[in-house]
User: Which sequence fits this backbone?
């Protein structure tokens, strides 16, 4: 099973990753190899087996909504690449 | 100097308490060794000597105040120099995660594990090297260059907590925090001849740990002994309001004494972990260690873990899927690298394309594919079901044994560059450490000998969920009657 260039480009787009031509070829080969290896899982009989998304018993993550101190805007903007008037600034969407 | 640098945490605490040394002396000894060995080993991404000396002086003042007036209790780790893997946030210190994307990121807050250590009075020496976002088994995926193994500079220290392991093994820190998503504490500990402890999932808060695979990530400890690991675990473990996956359940009784507590211990040996093609020395040393435990009264029984063979594909699908979601936050808007683009979408793509290294991109792509429409059931869904089977294997095995003993890895530390062209071959080396993460159970790795080339061999013990006490007690007992953990690398490096 070899992924096509279009498939690699589609995945890169979904993942918002700019790839070079060389990377596209590289990942096409490597992902194909890894996926072929992973497809052996499809031979495992999992009839009636529930999926595990967490090893912990599911429980409520809700708590009382009590205001508490958090980071100040100044602290938050400290790492921002581009800010204006107390907002993060981005190119046109 | 070497004498101070190779004290165990327990011994260093006693030395501080008895006034045999000060935290300033201890910290200076480590900083000098960092100066000496960092150029060869590259264990740290960022050393913070000034902060460390300030913390040491504060610790010494607190200790001398305490000697005069015992009104306030002294924090339990007062003045002990430790290192922190650079995927855990420490306020005001860059947290790069081994990535170019976060080269200039300075977290405004402490991770809970770091916070608890600091509140306990530790001295923080710096942030240790890691594979980018903890994705790797050798530190070769760090954007800042690989670390080297103190036992042989041409070998990897393991990964992803390879910087922490190299630092502890080389006497550049007493102990270090690491993280373990698929073996990233146990494997480098094994490669570097030290003790690596991964608690159960849910024991240590992940708040402030930069997320990789959220259902698998565990904060762990790299130390000289199981006793030291227990001391640190008591401080960092336990419920945290900031991480809903931490448990309210109290930690087990972790008190260790000099008794050899191996009598009657039922040790399970899974045939699936002693495979064709593994390094002979590794199997031999692990079997010797098991015999040693048997000599002290442990009972050895065969167990079956038949789904082990699927751990590698299950792990790489699930961890990559979770990573692809977790790393979506790196968009160049709120923090991290920003490349300019004409539209927001273009800016995202360019920033991410420039900021992430090859392995991170590979896993994001793999995870995105496994979660994408049309492939979800066949890959992600199926992997989650096989994860259930792996977890059930352990539940069945632990009905008849207390602990499971295995090698940590099929080989000892490999040469740098060995797996460069073939990521899959590197993934396959993780086969013995991945199952504990998939099942959420605790694991520990500790040295049990050397191969014929002088590289350390490690053994892994796994216990039922939340039974860290069994692991630490068993390893501590073994370390009472053996001295593999006391061996130090020679480190005669070309200057």
Assistant:
């Amino acid at each position: 099973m070899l992924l096509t260039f279009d498939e690699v480009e589609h995945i890169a787009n979904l993942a918002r990753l700019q790839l070079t031509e060389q990377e596209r070829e590289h990942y096409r080969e490597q992902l194909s190899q890894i996926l072929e290896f992973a497809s052996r899982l499809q031979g495992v009989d999992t009839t009636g087996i529930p999926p595990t998304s967490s090893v912990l018993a599911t429980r409520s993550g809700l708590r009382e909504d009590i205001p508490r101190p958090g980071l100040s805007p100044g602290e938050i903007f400290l790492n921002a690449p581009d800010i204006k008037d107390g907002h993060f600034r981005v190119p046109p969407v | 100097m070497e004498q101070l640098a190779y004290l165990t945490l327990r011994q260093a605490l006693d030395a501080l308490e008895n006034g045999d040394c000060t935290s300033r002396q201890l910290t200076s000894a480590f900083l000098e060794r960092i100066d000496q060995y960092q150029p060869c080993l590259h264990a740290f991404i960022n050393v913070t000597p000034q902060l460390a000396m300030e913390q040491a002086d504060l610790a010494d003042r607190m200790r001398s105040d305490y000697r005069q007036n015992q009104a306030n209790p002294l924090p339990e780790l007062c003045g002990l120099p430790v290192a922190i893997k650079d995927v855990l946030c420490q306020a005001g210190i860059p947290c790069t995660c081994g990535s170019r994307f976060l080269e200039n990121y300075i977290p405004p807050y402490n991770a809970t594990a770091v916070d608890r250590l600091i509140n306990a009075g530790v001295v923080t020496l710096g942030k240790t090297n890691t594979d980018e976002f903890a994705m790797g088994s050798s530190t070769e995926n760090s954007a800042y260059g690989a670390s080297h193994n103190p036992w042989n500079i041409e070998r990897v220290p393991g990964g992803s907590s390879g910087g922490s392991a190299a630092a502890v093994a080389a006497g550049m820190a007493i102990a270090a925090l690491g993280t373990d998503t698929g073996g990233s504490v146990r494997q480098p500990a094994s490669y570097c001849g030290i003790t690596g402890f991964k608690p159960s999932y849910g024991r240590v808060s992940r708040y402030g740990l930069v997320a990789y695979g959220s259902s698998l990530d565990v904060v762990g400890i790299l130390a000289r002994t199981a006793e030291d690991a227990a001391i640190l675990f008591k401080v960092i473990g336990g419920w945290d309001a900031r991480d809903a996956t931490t448990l309210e359940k109290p930690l087990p009784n972790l008190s260790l004494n000099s008794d050899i507590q191996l009598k009657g211990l039922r040790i399970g040996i899974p045939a699936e972990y002693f495979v064709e093609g593994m390094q002979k020395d590794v199997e031999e040393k692990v079997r010797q260690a098991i015999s040693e435990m048997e000599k002290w009264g442990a009972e050895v029984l065969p167990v079956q873990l038949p789904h082990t063979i699927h751990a590698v594909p299950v792990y790489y699908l699930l961890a990559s899927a979770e990573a692809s979601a977790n790393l979506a936050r790196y968009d160049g808007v709120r923090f991290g690298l920003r490349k300019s683009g004409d539209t927001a979408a273009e800016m995202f793509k360019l920033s991410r394309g420039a900021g992430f290294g090859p392995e991170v991109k590979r896993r994001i792509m793999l995870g995105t594919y496994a979660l994408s429409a049309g492939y979800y059931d066949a890959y992600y869904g199926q992997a989650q079901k096989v994860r259930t089977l792996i977890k059930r294997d352990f539940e069945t095995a632990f009905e008849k044994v207390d602990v499971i003993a295995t090698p940590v890895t099929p080989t000892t530390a490999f040469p740098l560059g060995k797996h460069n062209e073939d990521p899959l071959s590197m993934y396959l080396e993780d086969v013995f450490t991945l199952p504990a993460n998939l099942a959420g159970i605790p694991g520990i790795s500790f040295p049990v000998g050397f191969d014929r080339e002088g590289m350390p061999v490690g053994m892994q013990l796994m216990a039922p969920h939340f039974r860290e006490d069994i692991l630490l007690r068993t390893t501590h007992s073994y370390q009472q009657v053996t001295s593999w953990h006391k061996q130090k690398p020679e480190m005669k490096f070309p200057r």
Q: What stands out?
A: Residues 377-397 of chain B form the longest helix (21 residues). The CA atoms of residues 56 and 395 of chain B lie 46 Å apart.
